[in-house]
Design a protein that fits this description.
The complex is a heterodimer of chains A (524) and B (321). Chain A has 524 residues and is α+β, with helices and mostly antiparallel strands. Helix content of chain A is 33%, strand content 32%. Chain A folds into four domains: 98 residues; 94 residues, 2-Layer Sandwich (TATA-Binding Protein), CATH 3.30.310; 117 residues, no CATH class; 143 residues, no CATH class. Chain A is built from eleven helices and 24 strands. In chain A, strands 4, 6, 11, 12, 13, 21 and 22 form a seven-stranded antiparallel sheet that branches. In chain A, strands 1-24-23-3-2 form a five-stranded antiparallel sheet, with helices on one face. In chain A, strand 8 and strand 9 form a beta hairpin. The longest helix of chain A is centred in the first third of the chain and has 30 residues. With 321 residues, chain B is mainly α. Chain B has ten helices and no strands. In chain B, helix 8 runs antiparallel to helix 9. Chain B is flat. The two termini of chain B are 24 Å apart. Classes of the chains: A alpha+beta (524), B mainly alpha (321). The interface between A and B is large, with 63 and 61 residues.
C-alpha cells in the first residue's frame, strides 16, 4: 500500500443526490411546518401594511407622484422597491405564494389523515377511566345496548369483551378546517385569475341623452386592464344616459343620486331595442357579463361663442368638482374658431373659457364661491384666454385645464375676466361675444369586468362555513363501562369518562349533561 | 324624513350618563379587585371551580355562586356589576333612540360606531362574568371602554344626520353590525391577554408583579377567556369583511381593492388567524399567543382611528370634519 488511492468516484454520486434529496425534503418539511406558516402569516400582515400607509398607484396615481416629488431620494427608493404597488410587488407575491405552497404541503397529508380517521373505529376504552379529565361513576339499570341506543349522534363501538362503549364526536371540526383552507386556496386562485382576465374603465358621459358604447378602449377616459386583456374583445353593449338627479338635504348633504339610463346588449344591438334602467349608487347595471356603475357626477357649463364674423360655436365641456361638499367646479372649455384654414392664424385665435362654476352662487365681494351643491343659482367666474391652446401640438392635455406652459410662454393671453350669471354675456376687444347659456350635468360611469367573481363568492361562502365548523365544533371522546355491582354497590356500576381533543373546548357542561342521562347517581 | 332632534338629544344624555355610570362601576370593581377576598382568592376559587367541572367524581357538588362570607369589597363589587348592567341598558337605549331619531341603523358615522362598539364590549363582558368568576376584573375592561367612550363623545361627536347615498343600503345593517360586534368582542380578549402576560410572568417567577398579578385569576382562566371570545369574534369579523366585499362589489365596482380600511382589516384578520394557529404550534402557546392577540387588537384600533381619521380612502365616513 504505497500509493494513496483516490477515493472511489462511484459512491459520491448517490451521496450528493441523497444529500440533495435530504436538503429538498428538509426544505419542504421546514416550509410546510406550522411555525413557518406562522412566520409567513406575520410577514404577510407586515407586507400589507405599507399599502395602507403609503399612497398606491392603483388607487391614486397623482398622489404617488406628489409623494415621490415631496420625498426626494427616499421617495424614489420606495418606488424602485415597489412600495407604491405593494399588492403586485415581487415581495408581496413571494410571501403569499410561499404561504400557499406551505398551505398545500400542510393540507395534503392532513387530507389523507382525515380520510383515514373517518374510516377508523373510535379508540379502545382505557383501562382506568377515572384518570380521564372528565369522569363520573354511579349505578344504572340500563344495559350496555340500551346505553348504546342513548348515545345517538356519537360515532361509537360497543366492546362486549370488556363491557364498554367508546364513542367519538366532532369530526365536522376537521371537515370544516379542511373546507376552510381549500376554499381559501380556491378563493386566492380565482381572485388572481380575475385580475388577469378582468378590466375596469371609467368614462364621463353627459346626462343629456349622450351614449357610450363598450366597443374599445378608446371610448374610455381611463382603462385598467388585466394582463390577458388587450381591449379588442370587450363585451359589446351601449348605455345612453338620459338624465341625472341629485337630491340634497337642506344642509346641502346629498340624499340620493339616480340616473335614468337606457342600454342595449346582445340581440338588442341588432334590433336597436333600448331597455330602461334606473342607475343608482348601490345598484349597478349588470348586462352582457359586465357591470356599469354610477361613480360620480358634476356640471358642464354651456357657453356659446359668437365670433366677429357672425359664426357661432356652442360647447358644454364637463368641468370637475373641486369641493365635494359645495360642488364648486373648475374647468376649461376650449373653442376653435370655424372657417379659418390657415393653421398659424388659427393658433392665434383659439379661445379657452376657464375658471370656476358655482352651482349655487354666493358672492364674497367679487369672489365667487358656492354655498350649496344643488343647481340653484348657477354662476361662473371666468378668465378668457386667447392664443394657441396647443391642441395641434400632439401632446395630450387635460380636458379640465389649459397647458400652463403656453401661458408662461406668452402664447396664450388672458383677454377678459368676468362673473356671469345664466344668460349673461361678455364681450372681447375684437367683438367676440361669449354667453353663459346654462349648466348641464355629467355622470362618471365605471364599467367593470371580472369573469371569476362568482367563483370567488362561492369560495368565500364555503370558506366561511368551514371556518364556523372548525372553530365551533369540538372534537371529543366518551367512554362508558358497565361492571356488575358488588355488595357495597348493588345493581350495575357505570363509569363514564370524557376527553376533549380540542384545547379550551369547554367540554365540561356537555359531559355533565350526557353522563347525567346515563348515571343514576347513588344518592339520587 | 327630518331628524328628530328631541330623541337625538335624549340619546346624547343617555350616552353621557352611561359613561358616567361605567366610571363608577369601574371604581367599585377596582375596590373589589384591590381589597376583596375574591381578588385575593381568585386563584383558589378558579382552581376549585375547575375541579368541580372536571373531576365531578362522586356525588355532584352543588355549586354555590357566592362564598358563604360576603365581605364589604365583594358587596361593592356586586354593586359595580349591577351598575354595569344599568349602564349597558342606558347605552343600549341611547343607541335605539339615535336610530329612531335618524330613521336608519344608528351606525352611519364614527361616533355612532364607537357608541355601538363599546356597548358590545360591555355586553360581552357581562356574559363573560356570568361564565367565569372574574367580576373583580371588570375595572380593567372598563378602563379602555371609558377612554374610548370619552374620546368618542368629545372629539368624534357628530350631530344626528342622514347618511350619504353610498351608505343607503341594507348592507349598512349587515356589514357594519358584523364589524361592530367583531370589534366590540375583540376588546375582551385584548384585555384578557394583557392580564395574562402579567399573570404568566408572575406564575413563572413569583417575584414579578407580585402585588398586582397575585390578585389576578390563574393564567389558564385568562387564556380560556381570551380564546373563547376570540373564536366567537373571529367568524363574526370574517363575516363582516366578506359582507363588506359583497357590498363593495355593488357600490364601488369591485369586491376588493386594497382600500386602506380593507387592507388593515385584512391585516387584523391575518393576525387573528396567526393567533389561532399559534395555539396549535409548539413553543408558541401561552405568552406568544397572548402577544399576537394584543397585536390583533392593536390593528383593530389602528383601523378605527388612524385609517378613519388620517388616511383618505373610500371608507371615509367618519363624519369628523
Amino acid at each position: 500500500m504505497t500509493t494513496t488511492e483516490a477515493p472511489p468516484e462511484a459512491p459520491r454520486g448517490p451521496r450528493t443526490s441523497s444529500r440533495a434529496f435530504a436538503f429538498l425534503r428538509n426544505t419542504w418539511r421546514g416550509l410546510t411546518s406550522m411555525r413557518t406558516a406562522l412566520v409567513l402569516l406575520f410577514l404577510l400582515a407586515l407586507a400589507a401594511l405599507p399599502g395602507a400607509l403609503l399612497p398606491q398607484r392603483k388607487l391614486n396615481a397623482p398622489k404617488v407622484d406628489e409623494y415621490i416629488a415631496a420625498h426626494g431620494w427616499w421617495g424614489t427608493l420606495l418606488d424602485r422597491l415597489e412600495f407604491y404597488d405593494v399588492y403586485s410587488s415581487v415581495w408581496f407575491s413571494a410571501i403569499y405564494l410561499l404561504l400557499m405552497i406551505s398551505l398545500v404541503g400542510c393540507l395534503t397529508p392532513r387530507s389523507f389523515e382525515y380520510v383515514k380517521a373517518m374510516r377508523a373505529k373510535p379508540v379502545l376504552t382505557p383501562r382506568n377511566l377515572s384518570r380521564m379529565p372528565h369522569y363520573r361513576r354511579g349505578t344504572t339499570t340500563l344495559t350496555l345496548d340500551e346505553i348504546n341506543q342513548r348515545l345517538g349522534g356519537w360515532r361509537r363501538v360497543v366492546r362486549q369483551e370488556d363491557g364498554s362503549i367508546s364513542a367519538e364526536r366532532g369530526f365536522l371540526r376537521e371537515t370544516g378546517n379542511l373546507l376552510f383552507h381549500f376554499s381559501m386556496l380556491g378563493l386566492i386562485v380565482f381572485f388572481a385569475l380575475g385580475k388577469l382576465f378582468g378590466y375596469e374603465g371609467q368614462v364621463i358621459v353627459q346626462a343629456d341623452g349622450s351614449q357610450f358604447c363598450n366597443s374599445g378602449i378608446y371610448n374610455y377616459d381611463s382603462f385598467n386592464a388585466g394582463l390577458r386583456v388587450d381591449g379588442t374583445d370587450l363585451n359589446p353593449f351601449c348605455v345612453k344616459v338620459k338624465d341625472f338627479t341629485a337630491h340634497y338635504t337642506e344642509a346641502g348633504q346629498p340624499d340620493y343620486y339616480h340616473s335614468n339610463v337606457e342600454y342595449q346588449s346582445g340581440e338588442d344591438l341588432q334590433t336597436g331595442t333600448w331597455r330602461p334602467y334606473n342607475l343608482e349608487v348601490n345598484s349597478p347595471l349588470r348586462t352582457a357579463g359586465d357591470r356599469v356603475y354610477l361613480l360620480g357626477h358634476g356640471y358642464s357649463p354651456k357657453f356659446t361663442v359668437t365670433f366677429p364674423d357672425g359664426s357661432t360655436r356652442t360647447l358644454d365641456t364637463q368641468w370637475r368638482p373641486v369641493d365635494p361638499t359645495t360642488l364648486l367646479s373648475e374647468g376649461a372649455t376650449k373653442f376653435d374658431q370655424p372657417g379659418i384654414t390657415d393653421d398659424t392664424q388659427r393658433r392665434t385665435r383659439q379661445l379657452a373659457v376657464t375658471g370656476l362654476l358655482a352651482p349655487t352662487a354666493f358672492m364674497h365681494g367679487s369672489v365667487l364661491t358656492s354655498s350649496a351643491p344643488g343647481l340653484d343659482q348657477p354662476a361662473v367666474a371666468v378668465d378668457v384666454l386667447r392664443g394657441d391652446l396647443g391642441l395641434d401640438s400632439g401632446r395630450g392635455q387635460s380636458v379640465f385645464e389649459v397647458d400652463q406652459s403656453l401661458i408662461d410662454d406668452g402664447r396664450l393671453k388672458k383677454v377678459a375676466r368676468q362673473n356671469l350669471k345664466v344668460g349673461e354675456e361678455l364681450k372681447l376687444d375684437d367683438g367676440t361675444k361669449i354667453r353663459f347659456d346654462g349648466v348641464g350635468q355629467w355622470v362618471s360611469l365605471q364599467v367593470s369586468h371580472d369573469p371569476t367573481q362568482g367563483f370567488v363568492l362561492g369560495f368565500a361562502i364555503t370558506m366561511f362555513l368551514g371556518l364556523g365548523a372548525s372553530l365551533l365544533v369540538k372534537r371529543r371522546r366518551l367512554w362508558v363501562r358497565v361492571t356488575p355491582g358488588t355488595e357495597d354497590e348493588p345493581g350495575t356500576v357505570i363509569e363514564v369518562a370524557g376527553l376533549a381533543r380540542t384545547d379550551q373546548a369547554g367540554y365540561g357542561e356537555e359531559f355533565n349533561r350526557v353522563s347525567e342521562r346515563l348515571v343514576r347517581s347513588q344518592k339520587g | 324624513m327630518p331628524i328628530n332632534e328631541t330623541l337625538s338629544r335624549y340619546s346624547d344624555w343617555l350616552y353621557t350618563t352611561a359613561a358616567a355610570i361605567y366610571v363608577v362601576a369601574l371604581m367599585f370593581t377596582l375596590v373589589e379587585q384591590g381589597f376583596g377576598a375574591k381578588g385575593r382568592l381568585a386563584t383558589e376559587r378558579a382552581k376549585q371551580r375547575a375541579r368541580e367541572l372536571v373531576g365531578a367524581g362522586g356525588p355532584p357538588v352543588v355549586t354555590t355562586e357566592q362564598p358563604a362570607e360576603v365581605g364589604k369589597p365583594e358587596r361593592i363589587g356586586r354593586m359595580g356589576a349591577a351598575l354595569l348592567v344599568l349602564g349597558a341598558l342606558l347605552q343600549g337605549t341611547a343607541i335605539v333612540l339615535r336610530g329612531l331619531a335618524v330613521h336608519r341603523a344608528p351606525w352611519g358615522n364614527m361616533y355612532e360606531y364607537g357608541m355601538a362598539v363599546t356597548f358590545i364590549t360591555v355586553v360581552t363582558w357581562l356574559v363573560v362574568i356570568r361564565k367565569f368568576p372574574v367580576r373583580h376584573l371588570t375595572g380593567f375592561l372598563l378602563l379602555p371602554v371609558v377612554i374610548l367612550m370619552f374620546i368618542n363623545g368629545t372629539l368624534l361627536y357628530t350631530i344626528a344626520a342622514p347618511v350619504q347615498p353610498a351608505l343607503q343600503s341594507y348592507w349598512l345593517v349587515i356589514h357594519v353590525s358584523a364589524a361592530i360586534i367583531g370589534s366590540g368582542v375583540f376588546l375582551v380578549p385584548g384585555v384578557a391577554s394583557v392580564l395574562y402576560l402579567f399573570r404568566a410572568a408572575y406564575e413563572k417567577d413569583s417575584a414579578k408583579f407580585t402585588r398586582f398579578a397575585s390578585k389576578l385569576p390563574e393564567a389558564d382562566v385568562l387564556d380560556r377567556i381570551a380564546y373563547r371570545t376570540t373564536i366567537f369574534a373571529f367568524p363574526v369579523f370574517t363575516f363582516g369583511v366578506l359582507c363588506g366585499a359583497v357590498w363593495a362589489e355593488s357600490a364601488w365596482g369591485r369586491f376588493w381593492g386594497w382600500d386602506p380600511k380593507e387592507t388593515v382589516a385584512f391585516i387584523a384578520w391575518v393576525v387573528y388567524a396567526a393567533y389561532l394557529h399559534s395555539r396549535a404550534t409548539a413553543g408558541w402557546r401561552g405568552a406568544r399567543a397572548a402577544v399576537i392577540n394584543i397585536v390583533g387588537f392593536a390593528a383593530m384600533i389602528f383601523n378605527l382611528f388612524f385609517v378613519n381619521l388620517v388616511t383618505a380612502g373610500l371608507h371615509s365616513y367618519a363624519g369628523v370634519g
